[in-house]
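re: ur msg from earlier - yeah i can do the phosphoenolpyruvate complex, just paste it... oh wait u already did. ok heres what im feeding in:
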Amino acid sequence: MKSRRPLIAGNWKMNGLRQDGLALARGVAAKLANEGAPSCDLLVCPPATLISDVSGALAGTAVAVGGQDCHAAPSGAHTGDVSAPMLADLGCGYVIVGHSERRTDHGETDEAVRAKAVAAHKAGLIAIVCIGETEAERDQGRTIEVVAGQFHGSLPEGATAVDTVIAYEPVWAIGTGRTPTVADVAEVHAMIRREARTRMGDEAGKLRILYGGSMKPSNARELIAIDDVDGGLIGGASLKVEDFWAIAQSCP
Ligand code: PEP
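and the outut:
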């Protein structure tokens, strides 16, 4: 039995109109009500347009709601962006920062990701900081160096196991159906925990480090069973109630 309670987080990405989001949220809430709580914390991160509705639908349940990104500033002239206090205002408890799709599509650097995590903390949100190597970096044997660099570059000074979650997501495993071996995941997660000790001392023992990248019902159990894996960040499979629930039930 691990001392850290796993977190199963669904990243819905840019999917769903209001009725889809509501159906998904209500479906997860119904599972919880009918089948009882799994041995993990549950989180869904809908697109910004659905947060208000989903937050309302999940009010009073044990399913937390989070954003998929936030701006580093609390307000101002940033057309199209959403700030951390705005997410908190809608009932969010978490926000994902530095997802590889943001790093790639929007050129987000470690420094930008760190600023977003700082903004999340100031707004009282738990920041889920995403890090992970590309396929080319893995092929060059640079996985450990790249992931360690992103970890230190993206983690705010003074981050704690209470206000921060790390998500290790190999870029080449996201949405591809491919996953690293159990040994590879174990090696990277153990390294992240070691690096976390240099930043937060013993507190690192409490830090949740999620795995993300093509996690699904058929592989969740063996991935979540790995020593330093404390749950998952789930994209595609979080869009189906049955799959998301089956992954949650894979937690020991
Ligand atoms: C993600 O987007 O964070 C993710 C892990 O996606 P998928 O589960 O679809 O690979």
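cool cool. The chain has a mean pLDDT of 98. ping me if u need the other ligands too
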